[in-house]
Amino acid sequence: MAETESRQPIMRVKNLVKEFPVKIGAFGEKSAIVHAIDGVSFDIYRGETLGLVGESGCGKSTTGFTLLQLYRPTSGTVEYDGVDLSKLKEKELRSVRKNVQIVFQDPYSTLNPRMTIGEALAEPMRVHKICSEKEIQPKVAQLIRDVGLSPNVANRYPHEFSGGQRQRICIARALASDPEFIVCDEPISALDVSIQAQIINLLMDIQEKYNLTYLFIAHDLAVVRHISDRVAVMYLGKLMEIADKKEIFDNPLHPYTTALLSAVPEADPDIERSRKRIILKGDVSNAIDPPSGCRFHTRCRFAAEECKKRVPELVDKGKGHMVACIRLDAIQSEQAGTTE
Ligand SMILES: Nc1ncnc2c1ncn2[C@@H]1O[C@H](COP(=O)(O)OP(=O)(O)OP(=O)(O)O)[C@@H](O)[C@H]1O
């Protein structure tokens, strides 16, 4: 990936908010708001893979869905190639949908059981008028080959395939409209461990071949480390840290990131033995009634009184390493003091 190419944002997300009105109580008698994403801003650069990590319920999938306007944002903007998608009407979004696609976690429920693989791949080509009718069959065969299957699978139905093969077909379907940006929403979590690596390698191969940009959502940090150029860490609807992969794995700054990374196993047994795991207390708080101030303060071992009151902004600590923690300097000097 050329440096100049990598610095052009394909997506610019600014102050993105997504709230879901829900009914709560034993009989659904009360109304409440789920604050799934609360003021998230970040860029995704052309040709890169941005990994999005965080515990379950932190808002990762909602972020991916809202970027693609599958969920309409409550407020904030999502600029794709300079156009604010949140302002477009559904009809106007149709032409954008060709360029932005998603690969879901569950390959079992995303394919229409009544369509052959060939039909499933031809459909987006017809809808988005990617090529002439005559060109569709060769293009379908090429896509099937590109995802590592044999072209003779075109006449078969989804139920005839294993989970890994179905995910290959879902990837081919996402590619069928010739997109440039794909949200990969936990694309390997539903698959057998033995085939997860194959799907990751496939995603990396086709990224190069098709010039794709990815938002790669996952909770498995080892996988994120393998595939991402940059990594964003999310907690309860907020971004806590975002940086280049190497920077975030070698020098995590936010206490939440440090705790998450401490759970990633190291290949070197000597490093693994000497590592200190940080166990996070409790679970992620409820997104209906998130904690005041820093949302992570209820589980942070460095939290002080001020963390309950002030909402931390993402601050650039150099080289695009952004962190949202008002006690960062104090934590660093506390830690330097304990290691001296
Ligand atoms: N359609 C919806 N209606 C109401 N609440 C929702 C909806 N979708 C998501 N949520 C809530 O929004 C919050 C964020 O959910 P989201 O699925 O985005 O998190 P996640 O980080 O992707 O989690 P996971 O890894 O479990 O998929 C959660 O509290 C979830 O319950």
Care to describe what's here?
- Residues 11-261 form the ABC transporter domain.
- This protein has 340 residues and is α/β, with parallel strands linked by helices.
- Helices cover 34% and strands 22% of the residues.
- The strands form two sheets. Strands 6-7-8-3-9-10-12-11 form an eight-stranded mixed beta sheet, sandwiched between helices.
- Helix 4 packs across helix 5 (133-146).
- The radius of gyration is 21 Å and the shape is globular.
- The structure holds adenosine-5'-triphosphate.
- Adenosine-5'-triphosphate binds next to strand 1, strand 2 and helix 2.
How many angstroms does the end-to-end distance come to? 41 Å
Largest sheet: 8 strands, mixed
Strand order of the largest sheet: 6-7-8-3-9-10-12-11
Work out the helix count.
12
- The ordered H/E elements are HEEEHEEHEHHHEHEHEEHHHEEH
Unreliable stretches, pLDDT < 50, 5 or more residues? 1-6
Bound ligands: adenosine-5'-triphosphate
Number of strands: 12
For the record, the CATH class of the domain at 3-99 and 181-188 and 215-339 is: Alpha Beta
- Over all CA atoms, what is the radius of gyration? 21 Å
> CATH H level of the domain at 3-99 and 181-188 and 215-339: which superfamily?
P-loop containing nucleotide triphosphate hydrolases
Cα shape: globular
Assembly type: single chain
Provide the CATH architecture of the domain at 3-99 and 181-188 and 215-339.
3-Layer(aba) Sandwich
Task: List the topology elements.
Blueprint: H1 3-6, E1 9-24, E2 30-45, E3 49-53, H2 60-67, E4 75-80, E5 83-84, H3 90-97, E6 100-103, H4 117-127, H5 133-146, H6 163-175, E7 181-185, H7 193-210, E8 213-217, H8 221-227, E9 230-235, E10 238-244, H9 245-250, H10 255-262, H11 269-274, E11 315-316, E12 322-323, H12 328-339
Parallel strand pairs: 3-8, 3-9, 6-7, 7-8
Antiparallel strand pairs: 1-2, 1-4, 4-5, 9-10, 10-12, 11-12
Helix pairs in contact: 4-5, 6-7
Adenosine-5'-triphosphate is lined by residues 20, 22, 34, 36, 54, 56-62, 219, 287.
